[in-house]
Write a structure and sequence with these properties.
The complex is a heterodimer. Chain A is α/β, with parallel strands linked by helices. Chain A has helices at about 15-25, 65-75, 85-95, 150-155, 215-220, 220-225, and strands at about 1-5, 30-35, 45, 80-85, 100-105, 110-120, 135-140, 145, 160-165, 185-190, 195-200. In chain A, about 55% of the residues are buried. The chains are: A alpha/beta, B alpha+beta.
Chain lengths: ~230, ~80
């Protein structure tokens, strides 16, 4: 099990991801530079958070057209696991590998706080066995998930909403939805279920010293998703 | 050389939270007539020659995201 962590100019959660994967998750992981065109030898892809290309034009827009992304697209089309966190989620949406887009938070503020997540998709390999609420941090200015009405209906009807923001009791409420995302959506999967994108940072909830180990529930799925 | 200006705007159905903040700020300055504000972007392209299909392709492939944005462009000179 070897995970490719894609590095773009401006990625800044790449080291956290490497630490969490090699440490508590216990899999191999290596950096792959954005100019590379091969994912040979890798079993999964992790697109980390950060501010790739300084968020120029739109968050993730330029990174989504970087050389490595054609290969990530091919990799995803083979049904192999790809996860994008925060800016990585934005990159996967911009690349067309996930539906929707992420806009400026409803209330303008850059949000850096813990949130509660409920894993809702019983269909997605990433979340089907997760029945506990997860405490995971967010850190974003542009995390408001939006899509058109048809896409939203498709996500709901086909069980493609991986995670929703909820309150402590597991209910979707306006207060539990920090950024104004449609239908409290924090993460989605593609039709096939192998590509996951989410705004919260599981790699930052991977050690008791960080306040939560709930992120490991998501990251450990990498191991069995690819098996 | 030809200058083309591409105007990119958030789809009307989507909340523009930055535009809303600008409208609120204008209200605080006493501009009561403001009913709303929406922020877009303008990208000026300097082209060796104008080619409509080429500009459209640039918009579709990179400059605008059809999930959230509309665009139009005009040749300036």
């Amino acid at each position: 099990m070897n995970v490719a962590i894609i590095r773009f100019p401006g990625s800044n959660c790449d080291q956290d991801a490497l630490w969490a994967l090699r440490g508590p998750v216990g899999v191999e992981a290596e950096y792959v530079w954005y100019e590379s065109t091969s994912l040979q030898g890798f079993d999964a892809v992790f697109v980390p958070g950060g501010f790739s290309y300084g968020d120029y034009l739109r968050c993730g827009a330029v990174a989504a057209r970087a050389p490595i992304m054609a290969e990530v697209g091919r990799f995803a089309a083979e049904g192999r696991p790809v996860i994008g966190v925060c800016n990585g989620f934005q990159v996967l949406c911009e690349a067309g590998l996930l539906p929707g887009a992420l806009l400026l938070n409803e209330k303008q503020k850059f949000l850096c706080q813990d949130v509660w997540l409920r894993a809702d998709s019983r269909r997605s390999v990433w979340t089907k066995d997760v029945d506990q609420l997860l405490r995971v941090p967010i850190a974003h200015g542009e995390g408001r998930f939006v899509c058109d009405a048809d896409t939203l209906a498709r996500l709901q009807d086909h069980d493609l909403v991986a995670f929703r923001y909820v309150d402590q009791e597991g209910r979707t409420t306006p207060e539990g939805n920090p950024n104004g995302s449609m239908d409290s959506i924090a993460g989605v999967v593609n039709d096939r279920g192998n590509v996951l994108g989410l705004m919260p940072h599981p790699e930052r909830a991977s050690n008791p010293l960080l306040g939560s180990v709930d992120g490991l529930v998501i990251l450990r799925a990498l191991a069995y998703v690819s098996a | 050389m030809v200058t083309v200006r591409v105007f990119i705007t958030l789809k009307p159905s989507l909340l523009d939270s930055a535009g809303r903040t600008v409208a609120e700020s204008l209200h605080k300055l006493g501009f009561d007539q403001v009913e709303g504000a929406r922020i877009g972007k303008m990208i000026e392209l300097h082209l060796r020659e104008f080619d409509d299909q080429g500009v459209k392709a640039m918009c579709d492939k990179l400059l605008a995201n059809p999930v959230i944005e509309d665009y139009r462009y005009e040749v300036v000179a």
